[in-house]
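Worked example 2:
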Amino acid sequence: SAHKLGGPKGVGCLMLKPGVEVAAQVLGGGQEMGRRAGTENVIGIAGFGAAAAASARDLSDGKWAIIEKLRNILEKTLEASGKPLILVGTDSPRLPNTACFAAPGWKGETQVMQMDLAGFAVSAGSACSSGKVKASRVLRAMGYDEDVASSAIRVSLGLETTEDEVQQFAQAWLAAYERFLVRKAAR
């Protein structure tokens, strides 16, 4: 998806190994060697190409390594709080700009609302399930139980994100989590 690289929404790329064939999902014209029907979005395709070239430059210039350090600072700050949370995927290769963590018992959608009120946009569930309130199937497949999977949020950093913003987010999230834990203990 082009928008994952800063390109236009609604444009995608499918890469296939030589010899692998895919049946057309929409029948009609012979575009894309019979794999799809309809006129190509030439402007969108060009935008995707430009975004891919810019992303490749950013990668080779080391910009994403800086973002990876910020993501690690975020995770270390949260972990150092001593609060009961689960950092997902820290022992595996992963995107440099994305942190996923769970606060068991604190619903992801509630965290999203709390962070929105604090001025931060985060996500619960998968990137392609906006507006759906369900535990992450991916986290369930990774072996996390329903409670953990439904209490996970995803935080994405961009090339313009600063360390100060990361710290502000961490403090806002930890303060909201502390309020949740106090309410939970009072029940």
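The chain is about 45% helix and 10% strand. The CA atoms of residues 134 and 150 lie 7 Å apart.
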